[in-house]
Amino acid sequence: MSDGRIAVIGTGYVGLTSGTCLASLGHEVVCGDVDPEKVARMSRGEVPIFEEGLEELMRAGIAAGNLTFVHGAADAVHGAKYIFLCLPTPDGGDGRADLRIVHQVVAEISSLLDPGAILVTKSTVPVGTAKDIRTTLDRDDVFVVSNPEFLQEGTAVRNFMKPDRVVVGSDHRPAAEAVAALYEALDAPAVITSAESSELIKYASNAFLAMKLSFINSIAGLAEVVGADVTEIAGGMGFDDRIGNKFLKAGPGWGGSCFPKDTKALATIALDNGVSFPLLTATVQSNEEAQSRVADRIRAAAGGDLAGVPIGVWGLTFKAGTDDLRDSPALEVVLRLDTENAVITAYDPTVEKNLPAKNGYPDVTVAADVYEAARGAQVIVLLTEWSEFTAIDLAKVAEVAPRATIVDCRNILDPAAVAAAGLKFQQIGRPIS
Ligand code: UGA
């Protein structure tokens, strides 16, 4: 399909989804990863992550012969025209993204690239990284292009196949246009910019969405006090096209592997460049307050003291549709309860075993189902919006936890059904009756 082979370096959810979807568009794709065991599994068509629709697509690519997996970057880049870097860029501990892995890989592959090759950064990288990569690369005949991803975990395949836009940035326009052409079949608007703008579009988009969520969560806090309903407010706001109705669902705070890291990184980029950007610090602070407000509610529902109080938790992942626990607001809330010595039993459809304490996880017993998590609980808190929670048999919950108050932090349960089961009930951003 394209005039050259694509190498994808790094098969996390971004790399694996991008590689698989690019192959499904007809391109020839070779994915390289440092983990030989993972490479062996992927070559057999096993998807190491929880991502709807990915396995079928990956197996189809393998069967068609245009999607392969190899160990290491060197084998993957051999003869490739496009090299997509999909490598981890973790928080370096000071809010700045740690780019060591990216630069290590660029240095490793530099001498192996064909003249005219195009290095594409898909990882979220700070402004100026394309320039820094050119320095590490030290090749005038290889081009560097920024092409950020806007994939959401759980719906990544859908997001890839139906993007709102394709953003490509470079100081070498023909290289940017060649990368944009890889997505031609998707019929999405191509936004071609400088590398710096493209790098900032990614951070600005994630930070803006995080800010929108912090805003609605603060409105939820206000609604609870003044007797308003955040769902009605979000509905009323969302009809305004300038605001839009997406990302206005109040919850226990936002999290995941991207929003917290990217919002902090953008704040640091602004600080490092002497630009005042108080909205970003306020966005992060409001999120921490949203999580604390949930803990306060649970404490109040438990009578003011959490020590020794049995709490049932429904949902641990940072959102539904993923098994990802990274920076999960659910875990943040549970950590607060754990600090106050509550006795926590949790159920999540994707978490089978007790969480390892060494990762800084709270002390939680993981139950096999929602009823076991609820058994004997004084407060049951719903933290992740798994659709199966809307089908919970509330009469059965009332049998195993007759005195419980349910705190629904995603506003997905039906208040009338909870009342019919004889349980006390609270939701986020709605008056406490
Ligand atoms: C986010 C962005 O949405 C993607 O566009 C981006 O590509 C990705 O980060 C990334 O940088 O890789 P993701 O981390 O998968 O995607 O999570 P989201 O679906 O954006 O959800 C983030 C958090 O916001 C979750 O905790 C979710 O529960 C919360 N949320 C989302 C709400 O509380 N309410 C909403 O209405 C929407």
UniProtKB/TrEMBL annotation:
Reactions it catalyzes = UDP-alpha-D-glucose + 2 NAD(+) + H2O = UDP-alpha-D-glucuronate + 2 NADH + 3 H(+)
SUPFAM superfamilies registered for this protein in UniProt: 6-phosphogluconate dehydrogenase C-terminal domain-like, NAD(P)-binding Rossmann-fold domains, UDP-glucose/GDP-mannose dehydrogenase C-terminal domain
Q: Which domain of life is it from?
A: Bacteria
| Extent of the signal sequence | none
Q: Name one Pfam family in it.
A: UDPG_MGDP_dh
Q: What class of enzyme is it?
A: oxidoreductase
SMART domains documented for this protein = UDPG_MGDP_dh_C
UniProt binding sites for NAD(+): 33, 38, 89, 124, 153, 261, 326
Give start and end of each UDP-glucose/GDP-mannose dehydrogenase C-terminal domain: 312-415
Q: Which keywords appear in this protein's UniProt record, sorted alphabetically?
A: NAD, Oxidoreductase
Pathway(s) it belongs to: Nucleotide-sugar biosynthesis; UDP-alpha-D-glucuronate biosynthesis; UDP-alpha-D-glucuronate from UDP-alpha-D-glucose: step 1/1
| Keyword Protein biosynthesis in record | no
Enzyme Commission designation: 1.1.1.22
Sample GO molecular function, one term: UDP-glucose 6-dehydrogenase activity
Q: Which residues form the active site?
A: 258
Annotated residues for binding of substrate? 150-153, 202, 247-251, 255, 319
- What InterPro entries does UniProt report for this protein, alphabetically? 6-PGluconate_DH-like_C_sf, NAD(P)-bd_dom_sf, UDP-Glc/GDP-Man, UDP-Glc/GDP-Man_DH_C, UDP-Glc/GDP-Man_DH_C_sf, UDP-Glc/GDP-Man_DH_dimer, UDP-Glc/GDP-Man_DH_N, UDPglc_DH_bac
What biological-process GO terms show up in the record? Answer: polysaccharide biosynthetic process
Q: Which family does it belong to?
A: Belongs to the UDP-glucose/GDP-mannose dehydrogenase family.
What is this protein's record name? Answer: UDP-glucose 6-dehydrogenase
